[in-house]
Amino acid sequence: MSPFLRIGLSNYDSGPYLPSQGEVINPYCAVMVKEAVESGKMYVQKKPTMYPPWNSTFDAHINNGRVMHIVVKDKSAEMVSETTVELKVLAEKCKKSNGKTEMWLELKPQGRMLMNARYFLEISDAKNIIDCETEGFFSLHQRRGAIKQAKIHNVKCHEFTATFFPQPTFCSVCHEFVWGLNKQGYQCRQCNAAIHKKCIDKVIAKCTGSAINSRETMFHKERFKIDMPHRFKVYNYKSPTFCEHCGTLLWGLARQGLKCDACGMNVHHKCQTKVANLCGVNQKLMAEALAMIESTQQVSGISWETPVEDTSKGEPLIEPDSGGEQPQEQQGHQVQIKLTIEDFVLHKMLGKGSFGKVFLAELKNTDQYFALKALKKDVVLMDDDVECTMVEKRVLSLAWEHPFLTHVFCTFQTKENLFFVMEYLNGGDLMFHIQSCHKFDLPRATFYAAEIICGLQFLHSKGIIYRRMFFSVFFFLHRDLKLDNVLLDSEGHIKIADFGMCKENMFGDAKTSTFCGTPDYIAPEILLGQKYNSSVDWWSFGVLLYEMLIGQSPFHGQDEEELFQSIRMDSPFYPLLQIKEEKPERRLGAKGNIRQHAFFQEINWEALEERKMEPPFKPRVKSPSDCSNFDKEFLNEKPRLSCADRTLINSMDQNMFSNFSFVNPKMEKIFS
Known about the structure:
Elements: E1 2-13, E2 28-37, E3 42-45, E4 57-61, E5 67-73, E6 79-86, H1 87-96, E7 100-106, E8 112-122, H2 126-135, E9 147-148, E10 153-155, E11 158-165, E12 183-188, E13 194-195, H3 215-224, E14 232-235, E15 257-260, E16 266-267, H4 283-299, H5 328-336, E17 344-352, E18 356-363, E19 368-376, H6 377-382, H7 386-398, E20 408-413, E21 417-423, H8 430-437, H9 442-460, E22 463-467, E23 470-474, E24 476-477, E25 486-488, E26 494-496, E27 503-504, E28 516-517, H10 524-527, H11 535-550, H12 560-569, H13 605-609, H14 632-635, H15 646-651, E29 662-663, H16 667-671
Antiparallel strand pairs: 1-4, 1-8, 2-3, 2-5, 5-6, 7-8, 9-28, 10-11, 11-12, 12-13, 14-15, 15-16, 17-18, 18-19, 19-21, 20-21, 20-29, 22-23, 24-27, 25-26
Helix pairs in contact: 9-11
Keywords: ATP-binding, Cell membrane, Cytoplasm, Kinase, Membrane, Metal-binding, Nucleotide-binding, Phosphoprotein, Repeat, Serine/threonine-protein kinase, Transferase, Zinc, Zinc-finger
Protein name: Protein kinase C
Main location: membrane
């Protein structure tokens, strides 16, 4: 077996401007794989130099002493920057990150490049291939991570996404710098306008990147009565100057950009056609003035159309902490009990991912064991997942009384991490158990499926939850249902876990369009970019049921592209239960009463929901702290928190997580 890496290079950042080098135009990569000779004192290139296009992939086999030398050149074929990577070290990083990794390569003398790599085992022995086919080549032998498309904030036709700026960047609204190293802001995918996060509600001009002369833009100009074109002329800047549209530095020694004769706005040549006709208009001051007028008109009972679009039509930027105001009694619980990481002893690591880690933790002096989920704030911020984290906290805190959902006892935070203190389910997850028995028998799969249905229907139902003197109405989609996220307690009952991809406020005919989920479980409508509702969870449920009964995934592919094509085109046979329905409105679970299906005729639903049905399988659990039902790969690692990016943490606005801390009233019983 000869292991190899599949490597992709993208997102080259040339770094700060150097007059001696000039602007890098049309950069490309030259990749040279070299072998170590004379005990590593010299490296010899035996294969031709590769010139992989950006965002493409190439393969490199892993041998001792083999390195990859990457050279970035410009259109004149002159070297701009370079770096050297040891393939063996890169392979080790992939192994520690579920077979793949993504990292920024620091280049010399300056610049950086985003590289992603996947680790593969190439099977060359024919006997191994036959054995694999005999035992089920597509068997469920490894865990599969979830993916999520970058969140898009649609404001005035702009498509803003969270962006980390590697260099000082100018906000196009308030005309101030986005301060801090690697500071996060928003940048439009169409016109490249860069802004602070706080300035997103002050944008008054519609995006010109893709519709500068469209009918909608012309109507907007006529209605809003602001159409003041700039009078740009080429200008020679004698000092460092920033573009007031995309926010980056104007490169070059002469004729670096354009300057408006009227208002003095400075822009790149490439940004001229993307600048809105707002010559002499201060967007920040005008937005504040219009907001003040709006509030005055509302007090007077007069309708006024604000210049900033209502973002509630899409997903809110930061959603409120709960469905209504919490009573004083509930707030009192949060004040009375305050936990920190120092109150826990970390015994074992149960799992990890790009988000952070999950530990088996003991509350000191209580003999109580919990699953402690630690999220890294820098990763949450970089992935623009602050809202998703708050949604996960709300789902856990509101649904703790349901028997088939994971319960949370409290949440707290430090400067670097967010913590969920959840019940410890020592039975392990279904992925762990199916790897040992290849597939579940019919009674066991039916029992698990029935309890999962109860949990899903609870999440999908629009209900009123009475708790501590207040009501809360909610409606959720799970969107990441899979074997890894279904856990067993010590008695053998299931619990649905990991609500990080939930979508709330899906009332009535409401639909959403975020591309997210684990590739094997993603519904066709998500792949096609269509809006969807709770029916996507029933598609995932169908895939999960297929895996429990057959022991392999219904869809296959060597990469994500082939897998997604298989999901859209293939029609695998589902035994006993026809759930594979491409039309969401006709999918079993979304249409009709799935509980009345003949597949569940042996299920007493009332007894099931009261946990009175005897589970067909009881996991082997020796003690409350037993962790034998979890992967040894994680258990063998030291239980310690990951180091965060100190620079990013220090520049972070901690107020974004101000409403995160929560204490479940049940936590009082542990201290009493």
